[in-house]
Every structure is written in C-alpha cells, then in structure tokens.
Design brief:
The protein has five helices and five strands. By secondary structure, the protein is of the alpha+beta class.
Length: about 150
Amino acid sequence: MRIITATLIAISTLFTTQPNHTQTHPATQTQLTREPQSNVVEILPAGVPKDPLKRCPQWEPKFAEHGLPVKAFSYIAWRESRCRIKAHNTTLNRNGSQDLGLVQVNSSWKTVTRNICGTDITGLFNVDCNLAVAKYLYDNGGLRHWSL
C-alpha cells in the first residue's frame, strides 16, 4: 500500500504546474527563474490545417485569455478575417445577415452580443467583445458555428 501511495504522489507531482519562483544562487548572487510549464496539449480539430502560416499568432494570447482553443481560433481568425478585427462581411450571407470582427460573429447574435457586451452588433469590432461572444457560441455548439 505504501508503494502505491508513494507512486501516486510521485505521479501527481509530475502533472502539476509549478509556480514561478525566483531564486538567488548564493555563490553567484544571480537570479534564476523557473517558468511554469503548460501541461495542456491542444489537438487540432478536423478541418484545421497544420500550416502555421494560416494562423493569427498576434491574437493567440487573447484566445487563451477568453478560454478558447488557441490553435483552432487562430486558424478561424485567419480564415474568416485574415486577422483583422475590423473585418466586415455584408455580401456573402444569403439571409441578409452580416459577419463582424476578428472571428466573424454573425449579426443574428445581436441579443447575445447585447447581453454579453452591452452594445449593438458594432461592439463585435472590439476584440474582447468579439471573443466573449465567440466563447459563448463555442460553449453552446462548439466549432460548428465556424463550420469546423
């Protein structure tokens, strides 16, 4: 029983992230820093190419901040808006709706946009509003909203 307990404790320490520590080495008086290691491995969903050129790396910290799958949304932003927060599609939707912002949220989500961002659909040109609505859509239907 002790061996199993010790093994479980050893394994659990492998999978926990360590806090960022700053230490001073007594012999050199230089600071050493240890960065936390991420244990999250993101699997690319079907339909997301592996090509790193089809991404928006400048927006990836924002995708992570909003709790969105980073690589998938980095590709979605590239595909939908070519990484432009002010992208506005008024011509491709047969039903007369518009797609706005970085990940091209459809204007049919105006009530959701108002509830989340406190604004009309023009708020979707703000990256935080756009990604907050995208997070709502992702949590309520996944990537199918972007045909992935």
